[in-house]
Give the backbone structure.
Amino acid sequence: MIDISSAIEAILFAAGDSVPVARLSLVLGVDEKEINLRAKELQDKYSFEQRGMRILRLDDKLQMCSAPEFAPFITKALEQRKPPMLSQAALETLAIVAYFQPVTRAYIDQVRGVDSAYTVGMLTERGLIEVCGRLDVPGRPSLFRTTDVFLRTMGISELSQLPPLPDMTNGEGIEKLQNAIDEIQNAAVSGQMSLSEVTEQNGE
């Protein structure tokens, strides 16, 4: 009989991306509760043994990744440069999508009071947000939502773990949001990246 934990490990390693729990359940022939239990056991084992891997839960999906404490060594080994921080414009736009998704670019523009085309395009390119459909109105504008990359970046498993949204109409609100995000990331054992590790130079 196949070892379910080893099978989960093998699938996640080979996938290189997030895999729905429902998909693992179907492939391995066990219910989702069993998949979640085995995944939690692997998470605890990796952490206790200080292994170089971690298993992240991203809503209803699982993904294998490297342990955050080894990030500096991975960066050096792969000769990756640390990208600059997200601009205030990017953080504003990302917050709007995260808290009010799915949203159109017109809605983002209305909330921010400026054209956000460049920022939305950059966040989409970086994989933090994605198109998830079209609004059923004339012109059928695209709807945007956050992605698994966003959850990994924030060091959270689901959107309900986001901090309360502060008043975004002034710089103080942006600072409060950034501080709240930093607290989450510092507390997240499974966090892979931080917002300062997502490229953005020329926000609006």
Notes: The CA atoms of residues 120 and 149 lie 15 Å apart.
